[in-house]
Amino acid sequence: MVSDHPHILIVEDEAPMADRIGLILGGQGYQVDYASDGNQALSKIRLTCPDLVILDAVLPKFSGFQVARLIKFDPNFGKLPILMLTVLDRPADKERAKLVGVDRYLTKPFSDDALLGAVKDLVNPAKKA
What we know:
With 129 residues, this protein is of the alpha/beta class.
């Protein structure tokens, strides 16, 4: 299935949070897909080649940090943008995310506008001001 709407993989193990993110993005025309753990995320990335990954840091099987590192150091997916969306708000967590290749870091709780702004920047980098 080919679409003009960007495809976003939401990697979140808490279903209510995944649903909230999906509703926000789906309401803006984005195609969304879900993974509930790091292993499933890696499989879906390889299978569907999304335009963006929204990645929680705290996940079963592989942490979001491990998933990000595996994505960014894979020659086939190294340019895939990653938005880490997490409750972890320490400077050390933000630095670790940067070291593993995360493109944007957003903490929970978040506003719809903050999420949509980050997604638009990462999906359409050429359209930034």
